[in-house]
Write a structure and sequence with these properties.
globular, 9-stranded mixed sheet, TIM Barrel, alpha/beta
Length: 455
């Protein structure tokens, strides 16, 4: 990667896990608005339902974490929180059309595996007893291997989960110690053997841009990961945003890799993974050729939500439960309060615990589809979007901040190729797909919001 390109484009831009990004949500959006949005979502696409459960508890907090998490709270708080999750399911039950089917259940955190497998199993059972599920829905859980025994992994598999995202982050012990993350309790080979015997799918998550990481050390980590043959492998770029998460500030004492160093880490990892026949998906995912995400990419059926990339079969409008959970509906976003006691007390009182949200205009809905197509497929086909949205291609461009002069500059720098019908990211430009997406975002014109850098 040329240094001048890094200097020019490694500037703060949204991650676009949602459009508009979450820092545009506002407290003028109320619980009543969310209830109305749920009712309206019954008549919007996609018809299927995706449930997200936020488990904010951790044995201890990692310094890099950008999630809403609590270190080992009192047992009575945990019990009330789990009970509130069950009650929140019951609160939205009357608002959802019973004919709609659940296609995806995802547990994130925090550390979802902080809870005993039995409690997670009971939450899954509550969903399956209350709603109809599609055949073989995805039931995914994010796991911290630092605290899990062989029995723990087996119990989770019997709790109904069929996809495990193992948060390795790095195999280098010095890196893990510096960021205050517990190393895996079992050898990674043991974990994979146990999970394979249970017949579940395995993701491994890694983070680059942490103290003490180098191009060589991260390449060694990825080579070890490849030898374990996970179904999917994710290389997240560490987002250093200490103004939002002050705990990250401590990492500056050790020093963080530069943008150029992070770029080389990613490119080295990508080379190793592609040579091992993993296929790149979007920003940071790599999958085997027999993975449904790769098939979805080839067929133009790839989607993205707050849980990551998914297929048209499993994607659904997202209904989130727990503190800070973000529901992602056809025309609205709703985010629950981040205060755990406020969350518990509101739900116990029978009130949807919404703190803020956003109602999308028709123009913003169109922009969301354009940006999602770019982020998922590294291209935008205006005619394809026109057919999908039943809106003329010219009107779609007008809804976005489409600027031919801006695209020409991207093209001159080797990031994109474009014509009247398409925008296509070049292989060299993919690292900066967020920048190109931001160029289509009218909200970015004169924004004063804070974002992380692409690299």
């Amino acid at each position: 990667m040329k240094q001048e390109l890094l200097d020019k484009y490694n500037v703060p831009v949204p991650r676009y896990t949602s459009y508009p990004p979450a820092n545009y949500f506002h407290d003028g959006f109320t619980s009543r608005d969310y209830a109305d949005a749920i009712r309206e979502s019954n008549h919007q696409q996609p018809e299927s339902v995706s449930f997200y459960f936020h488990i904010p508890f951790c044995q201890r907090l990692c310094h890099y974490c950008g999630c809403n998490s609590y270190a080992a709270p009192k047992p009575e708080i945990i019990d009330r929180y789990v009970a509130a999750l069950h009650k929140e399911i019951d609160l939205i039950l009357p608002l959802l059309d019973k004919k709609r089917k659940v296609s995806q259940i995802h547990y994130g955190g925090g550390t979802p595996t902080f809870l005993p497998a039995l409690e997670l199993k009971e939450l899954n059972a509550h969903v399956s007893d209350t709603f109809e599920l599609i055949e073989n829905p995805e039931k995914a859980i994010e796991c911290h291997p630092g605290w899990m025994t062989g029995q723990d992994w087996e119990k989770l598999a019997t709790a109904g989960f069929n996809r495990f995202s193992i948060g390795i982050q790095d195999f280098n012990k010095q890196v893990l110690q510096t960021v205050h993350r517990q190393a895996p309790l079992l050898q990674p080979e043991e974990i994979v053997t146990i999970l394979r015997s249970c017949g579940v799918r395995i993701n491994m998550d890694f983070l680059y841009g942490l103290p003490h990481q180098t191009e060589a050390s991260f390449a060694e980590t990825i080579e070890k990961a490849v030898s374990l043959k996970p179904d999917r492998l994710v290389t997240f770029s560490y987002a250093h945003v200490p103004w939002a998460f002050p705990r990250q500030k401590v990492l500056e004492k050790t020093g963080l890799p530069s943008g150029d160093e992070k770029s080389r880490m990613f490119e080295a990892a990508r080379k190793i993974l592609c040579e091992a026949d993993y296929q790149p998906i979007g920003l940071d995912h790599f999958v085997r050729k027999d993975d449904e995400l790769y098939t979805a990419l080839l067929n133009g059926q790839l989607h993205r939500n707050f849980q990551g990339y998914c297929t048209r079969r499993t994607t659904g409008q997202v209904y989130a439960f727990g503190v800070t959970g973000i529901s992602q509906l056809g025309t609205a976003y709703a985010q629950n309060t981040k205060d755990i006691m406020e969350y518990i007390e509101k739900v116990e009182a029978g009130i949807l615990p919404v703190a803020k949200g956003y109602l999308l205009s028709r123009e913003e809905q169109i922009t969301r589809e354009a940006i999602e197509m770019l982020m998922c497929n590294y291209r935008i086909d205006w005619n394809e979007l026109s057919e999908q949205l039943s809106v003329p291609a010219r009107s779609i461009k007008q809804a976005t901040a489409y600027d031919e002069a801006c695209l020409r500059e991207f093209a001159e720098d080797g990031l994109v190729e474009f014509d009247e019908n398409q925008i296509r990211m070049t292989p060299e430009g993919r690292l900066f797909v967020r920048n190109v997406a931001a160029s289509l975002d009218k909200l970015m014109l004169g924004t004063n919001k804070s974002f992380s850098k692409p690299v």
